[in-house]
């Protein structure tokens, strides 16, 4: 894994201002989405009157909103057994659990933790999650270093998000391959991962909170974000046989990019 691709990881020294900006900008869209869903639920069941193709006669249809249980049954992630989740802030965790374990940042800010989390879910592996509070509260005495980290089944630990993603293929060869997936080459996956650094704003802070949203001296300009998104579109167009970065199948490249694009979707 090239050294210039290494993520800075999560550190408790990141600015609290970034966290505040992130929280403020995400609250309104979240509330709007909740209100929209509530409005849909309030009018169900409802009737719509589309017209038949070729004539003006209305087609009568009755639609009823799906229940939460029905929606849950359609989500593959909810059909699988949920991983064990340990939160030392809420309940003491006197020792590291045994078996495959992901140590990730507790508050959901960290895109680097999310990379490993996504890879584990895509592979369908059974694992335990331990939430680590990088702000200092409730951090286990036995835990050392930054997040994310993985503890392998034999007790070894490893850091650096994309190093972990690559190692997952080697440790669990029978699981879904990501580096590369079937039908793609290792070089194409590595190229797309490497292209991130050339595509996102070079003067932006790779902070674990509000990653690539601010420069070291203040806010980024609109043009910085537009250039980054235009570059992303061009990369996706290189493999137009499918919707993902290397074509038809999800790969480690998508795992690498998705957490940052997800945050851009909410922030921009």
Please explain how this structure is put together.
With 268 residues, the protein is α/β, with parallel strands linked by helices. The chain has eight helices and seven strands. It has a five-stranded mixed sheet, covered by helices on one side. Strand 6 and strand 7 form a beta hairpin. Helix 6 packs parallel to helix 8. The protein is globular. The relative contact order is 0.14.
**β-sheet strand percentage:** 5-15%
Question: Which descriptor suits the 3D outline?
Answer: globular
> Which quaternary structure do these chains form?
single chain
Determine the number of helices (DSSP H or I, runs of at least 4 residues).
8
Number of strands: 7
Radius of gyration: 22 Å
**Overall pLDDT score:** 79
In what order do the strands lie side by side in the largest sheet?
A: 3-5-4-6-7
Q: Spell the H/E element sequence.
A: HEEHHEEHEEEHHHH
Question: Helix/strand-derived class?
Answer: alpha/beta
| pLDDT < 50 stretches | 1-31, 33-52
What percent of residues adopt helix (DSSP H or I)? Answer: 40-55%
Give the termini distance in whole angstroms.
Answer: 31 Å
Q: Give the biggest beta sheet.
A: 5 strands, mixed
């Amino acid at each position: 894994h090239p050294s210039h691709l290494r993520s800075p990881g999560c550190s408790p020294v990141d600015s609290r201002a970034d966290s505040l900006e992130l929280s403020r900008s995400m609250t309104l869209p979240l509330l709007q989405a909740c209100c929209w869903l509530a409005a849909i639920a309030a009018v169900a069941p409802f009737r719509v009157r589309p017209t038949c193709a070729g004539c003006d006669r209305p087609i009568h249809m009755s639609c009823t909103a799906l229940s939460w249980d029905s929606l849950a049954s359609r989500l593959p992630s909810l059909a699988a057994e949920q991983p064990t989740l340990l939160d030392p802030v809420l309940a003491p965790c006197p020792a590291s659990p045994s078996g495959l374990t992901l140590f990730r940042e507790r508050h959901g800010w960290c895109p680097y933790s999310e990379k490993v989390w996504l890879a584990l879910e895509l592979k369908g592996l059974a694992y335990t999650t331990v939430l680590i509070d990088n702000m200092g509260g409730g951090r286990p005495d036995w835990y050392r270093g930054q997040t994310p980290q993985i503890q392998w089944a034999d007790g070894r630990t490893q850091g650096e998000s994309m190093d972990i993603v690559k190692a997952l293929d080697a440790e669990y060869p029978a699981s879904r391959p990501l580096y590369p997936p079937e039908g793609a080459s290792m070089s194409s996956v590595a190229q797309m991962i490497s292209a991130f650094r050339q595509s996102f704003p070079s003067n932006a802070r790779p902070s674990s909170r509000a990653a690539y949203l601010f420069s070291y001296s203040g806010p980024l300009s609109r043009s910085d974000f537009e250039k980054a998104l235009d570059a992303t579109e061009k990369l996706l167009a290189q493999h137009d046989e499918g919707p993902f970065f290397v074509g038809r199948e999800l790969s480690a490249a998508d795992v690498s990019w998705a957490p940052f694009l997800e945050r851009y979707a909410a922030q921009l």
